[in-house]
Amino acid sequence: MLVNPANAHNTEITLRDVEPAARAIGLQIQVLNASTSREIDSAFASLIRERPDALFVGNDAFFTSRRVQLATLAARDRIPATYSNRDYVEAGGLMTYGTKIADAYRQVGTYAGRILKGAKPADLPVVQSGEDDTFYLDLCDKAWLAVRIDANGWQVVRNPPVKFVRRRGMLPLPIPVTSGSIWESLKDLQRFVNVGGDEFVLVVSWLLAALRDRGPYPVLFVWGEAGAAKSTLLLVLRALIDPNTAKLRAPPHDNRDLFIAATNAYLPVFDNLSFLPPWLSDTLARLATGGGFATRQLYTDDEEKLFDATRPVLLGAVENIVIRGDLADRALVIKLKYISAKKRRREREFWPAFHRAQPKILGALLTAVSRGLKALPEVKLREYPRMADFAEWATACERGLWVKGTFARVYEANRQAVVADIVEASLVGQALQSFLSDCEEWTGTATELLARLNEQVDEKQQKSKWWPKGANALSGKLTRLGGDLRKLGIEISDAGRQARTNRKLIKVELRPEEEETPRQDR
């Protein structure tokens, strides 16, 4: 740990915080002093002899003024070092947990201005300083170009102040360009995907979410009969966001395979799925909103390998296999129509035309992202769906793309269709709907309800592995279906206990459907 003895007060505070924390996790701290450039050189000479695991540079104005020297020496001597603010990283340092000093002072000025205008200091929120609404897109080319995106627009830059991780198989993105209105540029995208109308709104909204630097991200699931260009759609979307030599993957075998795929690629794409086992459906739902997975690193030891990721995901299948509520709540489900032979295009014509249009399409998407960053603070939804952050972001991005409120209408219609498909795919859901068609309200035990539902299905369906064989199994299925049934106007609730047997009672009733459309206040 490098400190400046000339700044005794700051050094005392730093050591008071760091030393107990280091002892708590079993680390040994060696303190080095430097208050001149020559002493910094001497400190690094000592580091070469001692070969510590890492270097922590204390927060000090003198060190900040010598950040280029510090970063250069650390890189030369191959010493992993972390620093107190982002200025070191921009000077070539490895990493920091801090913000830029200028941004911190700017935030202080913002606070002071709000206080002078009458705000109470105790009411001011704690805000993270720095370029919170600025992020960078790695173009993955040999020149290490990147796109800087903020609320004022985007620009291609050299030597961005962030360190990108490039995994094996990543391919470069084209340099984006602007050409006319963003809507006219995005209309070019329609020439290469078999979607239009409301489905195109959802595809573009998914792209805009995937281009953002934070989740949650909806899962985009496309299905349809053979010849509907499902794989082509997945390939086009992958090429726009995260081109890779491994273009389309087969389904993962287990959680470990899935999280490894998500670690090695920003955009996991799985095509030709025939079935989503419950474990895969649940893990994809976790991946959309952020989740982790732990496994033994080797079968011969007890060390854990941890995976943690939040990723946009693309799925393709012939049938609609998104039938579990957790994943369905996080998914955009689009059915593609069959393309007739007369409308098909040869690949040797299709892909060169797409690659010519790709820079303009990417530029339009980045412009929409920038506008979304600018509009996001003003967007307020009257009601928030399950993927609230995504709905808010897509609403912020729609200016210049389509009429205000279009995304909210299309998204709600898609969610309702998904819910209807889930209930239709459930034997219990179908039986319950049939049962309530004769009575709008019923109260009884789970055992009694199962007997009533048995009357709604035939013997073959009762013997199916999907049909509950007992009261507990029925209660579990009703709990999983409860949210989806509620959206269709079927309410399931506890009704206390029977006075004689003390058994739990279930009440099912038809109620008006809840209105959950994420409309805007402004």
> Order of strands side by side in the largest beta sheet?
10-13-9-14
| Overall helicity | 40-55%
What's the total helix number?
A: 19
User: Superfamily at the CATH H level of the largest domain?
Assistant: P-loop containing nucleotide triphosphate hydrolases
CATH class of the largest domain equals Alpha Beta
- Name of the CATH architecture of the largest domain: 3-Layer(aba) Sandwich
Name the shape in a single word: globular
CATH topology-level fold name of the largest domain: Rossmann fold
Mean pLDDT: 86
Give the percentage of residues in beta strands: 5-15%
Gyration radius, in Å: 28 Å
Main structural class: alpha/beta
What is the terminal separation in angstroms? 51 Å
What kind of sheet is the major sheet? 4 strands, parallel
Q: Which spans of ≥5 residues are poorly predicted at pLDDT below 50?
A: 515-519
- How many structural units, i.e. domains? 3
Instruction: Give a count of the beta strands, DSSP E runs of length 2 or more.
Output: 17
Outline the structure in words.
The structure is a single chain. This protein is globular. It has 522 residues and is an alpha/beta fold. It folds into three domains: 2-98, Response regulator (Rossmann fold, 3-Layer(aba) Sandwich), CATH 3.40.50; 182-419, Rossmann fold (3-Layer(aba) Sandwich), CATH 3.40.50.300; 426-510, Aspartate Aminotransferase, domain 1, CATH 3.90.1150. The longest helix has 29 residues, at 347-375. Helices cover 43% and strands 15% of the residues. The protein has helices spanning 8-24, 37-50, 61-65, 67-76, 86-90, 101-116, 182-190, 198-210, 230-241, 255-264, 278-289, 325-328, 347-375, 388-397, 406-425, 427-436, 446-454, 459-462, 471-487; strands at 2-3, 32-33, 55-56, 81-83, 95-96, 135-138, 146-150, 153-157, 219-223, 269-273, 291-296, 304-309, 313-317, 331-335, 441-444, 490-497, 504-510.
